[in-house]
């Protein structure tokens, strides 16, 4: 019997038809949509006279462009307002489940999917958003698609897709205190580079990965895309099943037993082959931070920014350009750098565990005067939990303010922008030039590191506060 990887098992089960020497016609179980990449797809669908084939397989929420204050008022920005209104119109017209602003389950698309139990093991999931890879934490094949593919899924529930190669990254051992899943993924990307996963789908394995909560696993799969991979996934286990049990969209009764029996088969067979494998020791991972303008430019906080030694030609040139943008010099320490803003949120780290970690860290302390702190829950559910658990009180006591759910300062498509030249330590996923606002300088880190920076006003190892 052929030995298969987890990825192969899920992929092969969804191939409707294979085109010789071409892509597969690939069936999609769940389609998430938001206000930015769906309007044109709906428009083209209408022009062709097509309908949404399976509206019950699509779930919508506005997240990218929405403001994170005064969400009950009319959206001021004209384009954002129009996009959100179009999403409402289209969902109504085609009978699509919409979690709108102000409703109980509104939030970032990749936060509400798992929260509601829509995301399940063995599924294929797409969304017009690159960080769809988040859902792979459940043992699903999940990836971002373009607007024309969004239209394709509306019309046929399928897309044309070439099968990626397979990579396995194993992290074994015990994590040090103060080291989080965000540090694991920033460490891996610093080793493999921002393009090292190109053409691959990654399975994360090993005892350090298995020890993580579902929310921590989502952080890891979320950033697979930042090493160029098509997506990432983790085999489902008891942690996965316990997380899903009782969720609104999760199977119930006999259906649960049936689903569970199938989910338990979703693991890589002993001896199955990958195209490439990497292995890391959890003991080598420490709190990480980025210093440049792509997520692969990361170091341990205690280390110095790498020098240009051994670099030549265009590599050296682009490295210097990146550091110039950041206002950093090769070889200098990153620790102690003065910071202006901190941002806790996004589909990477806007979940309840992230806000709990920050609240626990800052309890009884005060944020530094030079810091502007934005804490943005990933969903209404997270917001409600943070209030119910008293986390908001702790944060406000320390000088922080919780905003309303949305993508916020992750991508500067809304009002939450970091001003030009200012430094932000952020729990989001990208540090490209201008990603958080024109001229903004972004350092990516874990929620614990962000909390430490907020208290000290400078780049700080959270273990030393």
TrEMBL record:
<dbReference type="InterPro" id="IPR050067">
    <property type="entry name" value="IPM_dehydratase_rel_enz"/>
</dbReference>
<dbReference type="InterPro" id="IPR004430">
    <property type="entry name" value="3-IsopropMal_deHydase_lsu"/>
</dbReference>
<comment type="function">
    <text>Catalyzes the isomerization between 2-isopropylmalate and 3-isopropylmalate, via the formation of 2-isopropylmaleate.</text>
</comment>
<keyword id="KW-0408">Iron</keyword>
<dbReference type="GO" id="GO:0003861">
    <property type="term" value="F:3-isopropylmalate dehydratase activity"/>
</dbReference>
<keyword id="KW-0411">Iron-sulfur</keyword>
<feature type="domain" description="Aconitase/3-isopropylmalate dehydratase large subunit alpha/beta/alpha">
    <location>
        <begin position="8"/>
        <end position="457"/>
    </location>
</feature>
<protein>
    <recommendedName>
        <fullName>3-isopropylmalate dehydratase large subunit</fullName>
        <ecNumber>4.2.1.33</ecNumber>
    </recommendedName>
</protein>
<keyword id="KW-0028">Amino-acid biosynthesis</keyword>
<dbReference type="InterPro" id="IPR001030">
    <property type="entry name" value="Acoase/IPM_deHydtase_lsu_aba"/>
</dbReference>
<keyword id="KW-0100">Branched-chain amino acid biosynthesis</keyword>
<comment type="similarity">
    <text>Belongs to the aconitase/IPM isomerase family. LeuC type 1 subfamily.</text>
</comment>
<comment type="pathway">
    <text>Amino-acid biosynthesis; L-leucine biosynthesis; L-leucine from 3-methyl-2-oxobutanoate: step 2/4.</text>
</comment>
<dbReference type="Pfam" id="PF00330">
    <property type="entry name" value="Aconitase"/>
</dbReference>
<dbReference type="InterPro" id="IPR033941">
    <property type="entry name" value="IPMI_cat"/>
</dbReference>
<dbReference type="InterPro" id="IPR015931">
    <property type="entry name" value="Acnase/IPM_dHydase_lsu_aba_1/3"/>
</dbReference>
<keyword id="KW-0479">Metal-binding</keyword>
<keyword id="KW-0432">Leucine biosynthesis</keyword>
<keyword id="KW-0456">Lyase</keyword>
<dbReference type="InterPro" id="IPR018136">
    <property type="entry name" value="Aconitase_4Fe-4S_BS"/>
</dbReference>
<feature type="binding site">
    <location>
        <position position="407"/>
    </location>
    <ligand>
        <name>[4Fe-4S] cluster</name>
    </ligand>
</feature>
<feature type="binding site">
    <location>
        <position position="410"/>
    </location>
    <ligand>
        <name>[4Fe-4S] cluster</name>
    </ligand>
</feature>
<comment type="subunit">
    <text>Heterodimer of LeuC and LeuD.</text>
</comment>
<keyword id="KW-0004">4Fe-4S</keyword>
<feature type="binding site">
    <location>
        <position position="347"/>
    </location>
    <ligand>
        <name>[4Fe-4S] cluster</name>
    </ligand>
</feature>
<dbReference type="InterPro" id="IPR036008">
    <property type="entry name" value="Aconitase_4Fe-4S_dom"/>
</dbReference>
